[in-house]
UniProtKB/TrEMBL annotation:
<dbReference type="InterPro" id="IPR050834">
    <property type="entry name" value="Glycosyltransf_2"/>
</dbReference>
<dbReference type="Pfam" id="PF00535">
    <property type="entry name" value="Glycos_transf_2"/>
</dbReference>
<protein>
    <submittedName>
        <fullName>Glycosyltransferase family 2 protein</fullName>
    </submittedName>
</protein>
<dbReference type="InterPro" id="IPR029044">
    <property type="entry name" value="Nucleotide-diphossugar_trans"/>
</dbReference>
<dbReference type="InterPro" id="IPR001173">
    <property type="entry name" value="Glyco_trans_2-like"/>
</dbReference>
<feature type="domain" description="Glycosyltransferase 2-like">
    <location>
        <begin position="15"/>
        <end position="188"/>
    </location>
</feature>
Length: 334
């Protein structure tokens, strides 16, 4: 069986997973699937998991007869959908691409090549934001940056200032563009289904929790694993209009705090916040200073608002009896 194009096969086979939940993203879903098919490396299979939406399931099966299209067999939400795919995947590596992201040429090859090192357990890549207009004021970015990132781009699921610009080891991968060896799931289980996104609910961090849990489990067995960030593996991530509003910034920041609190309860505060400490201490202050000096007080305020709501969410999530599904408190517009 010819699994790959004859231009040098990567060291592992791959199952590419696209999880979907709403027909409103149909054009995005088609673009995501087509971007996988256009890669110079062919995956062993592409799996589309539909999250508790029978109408969308029928439409996807009709549109993609050559793909594996299945319903989420677990709890509703992105984690359950991903776990469904993991159970079905036949590839040595399971690759996850968001339903509103399109892979750039060379994406899959760049993700898979590092697996030639047997110590590499996971590889993730860059997500470039595709805004509905220009960069919004509430997501400031350094105009001088060669990489086009902003300090708060994680709010919209994209690569943010402070992440590596060359291949490097990282604590965790970013969900819209990531891959993990299938053996990792066999060793430590799947994504935690009590945290993470459900529909438009902007909770997250299930990828962070899984990566930390995997590293802790392998270390307990006397084996160190590598989780890599590979900037050559790039996707374009569409940002919808509702995500470039102040209300979404506050809601997403609050949810991030709640999610980080939930992760810290599962894997310990030290590992859960190891990356965030440096980000808060160095990246955010530089952003505020730059925006103030440039005469952009609203953008500087966005950084402060984001940090404030994230911190408040984390504190709320750490309270006894708190869950990751606490509603966002009312707030005035910024």
């Amino acid at each position: 069986m010819n699994l790959f194009e004859p231009v040098g096969a990567p060291p592992v086979t791959a199952s590419v997973v696209v999880c979907v939940y709403t027909e409103k993203r149909w054009a995005d879903i088609v673009a995501a699937v087509e971007s996988v098919a256009a890669q110079d490396v062919r995956p062993l299979e592409t799996i589309v998991v539909v999250d508790h939406n029978p109408a969308l399931l029928d439409r996807a099966r009709e549109a993609f007869p050559e793909l594996v299209v299945v319903a989420n067999a677990h709890k509703q939400g992105l984690s359950g959908a991903r776990n469904t795919a993991v159970e079905l995947a036949k590839g040595e590596v399971v690759v996850f691409l968001d339903d509103d992201a399109s892979a750039r040429p060379g994406w899959l090859r760049a993700l898979l090549e590092p697996y030639a090192d047997p110590a590499v357990a996971g590889v993730g890549g860059v997500a470039h934001p595709r805004f509905p207009g220009g960069r919004p004021v509430m997501l400031p970015g350094d105009a001088l940056s060669d990489h086009g990132t902003g300090e708060l781009d994680w709010v919209v699921g994209c690569t943010y200032t402070g992440q590596p610009t060359a291949q490097a080891e990282v604590r965790n991968l970013m969900g819209c563009n990531m891959s993990l060896r299938a053996e990792v799931f066999k060793r430590v289980g799947g994504f935690a289904e009590d945290i993470g996104r459900i529909g438009k609910n902007p909770l997250g961090c299930e990828e962070t929790e899984l990566c930390i849990r995997a590293r802790q489990a392998y270390r307990a067995d006397g084996r160190d694993i590598k989780i890599l960030f590979e900037p050559r593996a790039a996707v374009d991530h569409r940002v919808s209009e509702d995500r470039v509003e102040w209300a979404y910034l506050r809601r997403r920041s609050w949810a991030e705090g709640l999610s980080k609190a939930a992760v810290s309860k599962l894997v310990g505060q030290g590992d859960a916040l190891s990356t965030e400490r440096g980000y808060v201490a160095t990246v955010l202050p530089r952003a505020v200073l730059r925006e103030v000096r440039a005469g952009r007080p609203a953008s500087a305020a966005a950084v402060v608002v984001c940090l404030g709501f994230t911190t408040a969410g984390y504190v709320r999530g750490k309270l006894p009896g708190a869950t990751a599904h606490v509603s966002l408190p009312a707030a005035n517009g910024a």
